[in-house]
Design brief:
The chain is mainly alpha-helical and about 180 residues long. The chain has eight helices and no strands. It is elongated.
Length: about 180
């Protein structure tokens, strides 16, 4: 069965057609999603991404355009997109939100940098960071720039920006936890 007929059958809610697609492309989609989620996701995350591809195809068969490519390449692209979204979600969960960084009202007496009101302690901790980490935090959490935008402005790899932000937040959390 060619791609257009397969899509027509899926649009007509022919379950045999979607099963054939699943049998034919599951190995490919697992490979594509697995490459994106390698080192980050679990097998359940991978399974969810592949299942999402089939659910998306079942719900939106009209989105496939045979003039733009084959069903195989379309499904691989959808799998990659779903896996990238899942990867972003998983890596965001590992990040420390700034809300966790707010200092308590009682500064620790043994650290001279932690005297004064909490805003002052945060100011000291931010100054202890130095550049470019301080700039990264300001751009990300004050100006709400995405790591990709920051990377473009500073001409650094996105992964380096993400890593520096993570380390800077950990540094602040350690400095501000009393």
């Amino acid at each position: 069965m060619n791609d257009e007929r397969t899509i027509q059958a899926i649009a007509a809610r022919d379950e045999r057609a979607i099963r054939r697609v699943m049998d034919q492309y599951s190995r490919l989609l697992w490979s594509v999603a697995g490459g994106v989620l390698q080192g980050v996701g679990t097998e359940e995350d991978l399974e969810e991404c592949v299942a999402d591809v089939y659910v998306f195809l079942w719900m939106h068969p009209e989105k496939f355009d045979p003039l733009r490519g084959s069903l195989k390449s379309y499904l691989a692209m959808v799998a990659r997109s779903r896996a990238l979204n899942r990867r972003r979600q998983l890596t965001r969960q590992d990040a420390l939100p700034l809300e966790e960084l707010s200092p308590s009202q009682e500064p620790a007496a043994e650290d001279p940098d932690r005297t004064g009101p909490p805003d002052e302690a945060l100011h000291h901790a931010m100054n202890a960071l130095g550049e470019p980490d301080r700039e990264l935090l300001v751009r990300r959490y004050y100006y709400d720039q995405k790591p990709k935008e920051i990377a473009a402005v500073l001409r650094l790899p996105v992964k380096q920006i993400e890593n520096r932000l993570y380390r800077a937040k950990r540094f602040l959390r350690d400095r501000l936890t009393f």
